[in-house]
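Document type: protein sequence-to-structure record

Subject area: structural biology

Format: plain text, a pair of labelled lines:
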Amino acid sequence: MLNFHTKSFFHNESEKDFFSESLVTPESLAEIFPIDQNAVLRVMRKYPMRINPYFLSLIKKADDPLGRQVIPDIAELDQEVFLTPDPLWEEPQSPVPNLIHRYPDRVVFMVSSQCAIYCRHCMRKRRLGQEKQVPESVIAKGIEYIRSTPAVRDVILSGGDPLMLSNDRLEQILSLIRQIPHVEIIRIHTRIPCALPQRVDKSLTDMLKQFHPLYMNIQFNHPDEITPQSTAACAALADAGIQLGSQTVLLKGVNDNPEVMMTLMQRLLQIRVRPYYLHHADAVEGTRHFRTSIETGLEIMRYLRGRLSGMGVPQYMIDLPGGGGKIPLLPEYVLESGPHELKVRNFEGRVFTYPL
């Protein structure tokens, strides 16, 4: 098995590519799973692969729900006219590099270009592996934009994955943002507690808890990602006072099953992660094989409602092409509406009359 050292990166002043000695290669992958190495290499020429040994250890088969998320698939090279590299228009909505200002009161600030794994369904697939780190000049321009834009009260750190930065560098960025008077909330969007939970240690949590109110949204997509290690990572973050939420992506062959999704939401609540969003997969080039129908998502929401505590039911969201932003989708419960009553269908399919 490949060696995996974490301490040298996580507590280093500089940002090194700490995967250099431990990344999984097509050759090492083929020693474990019956994959087509040539197909993997063809995909990697356009969309790089990154799998760390921890996440690899969770994969039972190349096409299981976890393997599908990280092992390149030749279907990524299929051409679909309606799929584009940047369907959400992130680039046109970036007043400075690496910062997206779509909504009046919040910005997404991409402070890292690295991830613990490269998800094959990534909404920023176009950016995978393009740079080792975000230049200091780009960070400075983003901070200055936030400082000079009083309407911004909510800053979302994204990437890449912000927790791939060293503690010192992340602390510096958080300190600069927290010094801006009109910024009220800082959020971190990350997959680290799921994909590389060893990163979450006492030095990290001690640093993060200086910057409350601090929120963290984590991408968990399948119950098998909830392990003793990821459970411990979430416990450490929650114990540090960080509010944890999940942003799950609806993926064909991964979690497009009502019972699988309900199990995931139940387990998230058990590890103190509040289900927040269930994202319909974006129309991103190279991800067509992951996209389900909208009806599949609505059927899952119908199944969850009534069978699961309300705090365990996420909002089902679509992100509109062309930079229109996110909107929630809901199953249809109202059958008829009159002046004195509603006819509604409940989660079991039974019809009731509700007086007005």
